[in-house]
Amino acid sequence: MSTELLSALFKRKSQVETGGQTWESAPEQSNADASAHLQGLKFDAPAVQDWLQQLDITPEEDMLAQALADGLAERRGEGMPEHVIAAGDRRLQELAAKLAAMQRAFAEERESLGSRCEELERREAEIRAREEGVEAEKQAQKVREEARKNYPQPKWLTHLEGTINIGVVGNSGVGKSLFINKLRKVRPQAHGWAPVGVNETTREPTMYPFPGQPEVRIWDLPGAGTEAVPSATYVQDMGLRYFDKVLILTAGRFTSMDVELRDELEQHKVPYYMVRTKVDIDVWNNKEDNGADQKTTIAQIREDLKSNHPVGTSYLVSSRDPESFDMPVLVTELFPCMKRQLDADAPSFVPTAPAWNCSWAMPVVFSATLQGMQGRWRDGYSANYLLQGNQVHVSLLQGQRAIVPLTERDGRVWWCNRWFVNEEAVKTARRKAELRWAPTQPGDQPLIWWWAD
After folding, report:
1. Is the predicted pLDDT of residue 12 greater than 70, yes or no?
2. 241 vs 159, 264, 314, 404, CA distance in Å?
3. Cα–Cα 20 to 30 A to 343, which of 45, 214, 413, 434?
4. pLDDT of amino acid 339
5. Segment 417-445, tens digit of pLDDT
6. CB 318 within 8 A of CB 297
7. Rounded distance between C-alpha atoms, residue 274 and residue 260, angstroms
8. How confident is the model at residue 74 (pLDDT cuts 50, 70, 90)?
9. Number of other residues whose CB lies within 10 A of the CB of residue 106
10. What tens digit of pLDDT does each residue of 181-230 get?
């Protein structure tokens, strides 16, 4: 059963349980609203967004943020993307002025040259070349004006000058929103978090700025081919030719619509990237079904894309594991300044630089088990859990909130020292979207959490 279906079924189950009522002739004291794993917690925590803001953010080195700042500094003064810039009247006027000056100089020289026919012919040829250049520029400007009429800049896509705009397109279920969150390194439910769901959550173009760099904007664009967004006018409606770069996402095979988008972007010389998401799920499934290792699965996916999808270079990524697969390579392609940040002679890598003398030079590193659990979960008691580092924010349906610290020992992550999960359980949860905590005390039942993002 797919992850999307499991998540949808659980969401429906929660809705039914929330809206249901139980009638008893002689009601007794019940702990149905608080399972054993919630008893004893101190429910005095702030709301989740306030809690996230209060967390101590380890000021680890953020090369992407620095690269974005460098890229914006280089971009200032250049205006809109190169493939959108129209030469305009100024360029045409400059050429015309040079031509007029040359024509006047030629007329004056013609009288003084007299019989020097060869020099006259050379000058006449030079003027004709200039005239042809002016005419060619007029035609090019006409083509650009026609393009702007056929592909008008959308009203919602404003302030192109001085900004970097990257569009993310793809159909429902390919993981656009989560991809955007991970690309921007935004915490779940924090300010600027793009809503994630199993249904189409993107109804209209939505802009998400990079934290600390609002001039760098990621646009979550609705998928093409729906009633709300017909494929025939998608490129025009979304204004894709005005973006600096466009990412085309799929969770399986690239569709004919994806290929059409690629062709349109190539025609207008807009840089694009074909991105295959959720490859971690493919790796896990192929291991379970066929005993194939990660390297084999990745090779099979690449061969399938190469043989059956004429899309050129593609990037295999996992938003659940953004440091693996092709995500780091994709980031450096999206933001070329990152390549300079990775230079061994760059200040970020020189031990004598001031940054190396700071206490944050060595960031906190969590185990693979704890890393795989990060994010939002739900249980059958309508409780919500947000894991951030080794802390869990618990929210109950009635509004109570608590903070629970997780502990690690013997390769296990412990909840209240009574339930635990190990790396194998987390790997299974990545595939089934269901995390099972094993009890250690007699009478305790396993805890079951369902993935909520």
Report:
1. no
2. 15, 8, 20, 48
3. 214
4. 63
5. 899 999 999 888 877 889 999 999 888 88
6. no
7. 12
8. low
9. 15
10. 888 887 776 777 777 754 555 567 889 988 878 888 999 988 765 555 55
**271 close to 240: Cβ distance less than 8 angstroms:** no
At what angle are helices 3-19 and 423-432 packed, to 10 degrees?
Answer: 80
Give me the torsion for CA of 120, 121, 123, 129, rounded to 10°.
Answer: 160
As a dihedral over the C-alpha atoms of residue 396, residue 177, residue 9, residue 38, rounded to 10 degrees, the angle is -20
- Of residues 368 and 219, which shows the higher confidence score? 219
Euclidean distance between CA atoms 214 and 141, whole angstroms:
32
E strands, 184-333, in order: 206-210, 213-220, 245-250, 272-276, 314-316
Tokens (6 digits) for 405: 């610290």
Identify which of 439, 445, 432 has the alpha carbon closest to the alpha carbon of residue 7: 432
Residues 6+ apart with CB under 8 A from 350: 356
Rg (CA), the chain: 29
Residue that has been written with the tokens 């002679």 in this structure: 345
DSSP 8-state secondary structure symbol assigned to residue 232? G
Alpha carbons 255 and 56: distance in angstroms, whole number = 44
| Cβ count within 10 A of residue 180 | 25
Whether the CB-CB separation of 313 and 272 falls below 8 Å is answered with: no
* DSSP H/E element including 271: none
Spatial contact of 192 and 183, defined as CB atoms under 8 Å apart: no
Task: Report how far residue 109's alpha carbon sits from residue 265's, in angstroms, rounded to the nearest whole number.
Answer: 50
| Cβ-defined contacts of 324-333 (< 8 Å, 24+) | 324/280, 325/279, 325/280, 325/298, 327/182, 330/273, 330/275, 331/64, 331/183, 333/273
Counting runs of H as helices and runs of E as strands, what totals does the chain give?
14, 15
- Of 437, 433, 387, whose CA–CA distance to 412 is shortest? 437
What are the helix (H) ranges across 357-412? Answer: 368-372
Top-confidence range, 79-93, 186-200, 346-360, 379-393: 379-393
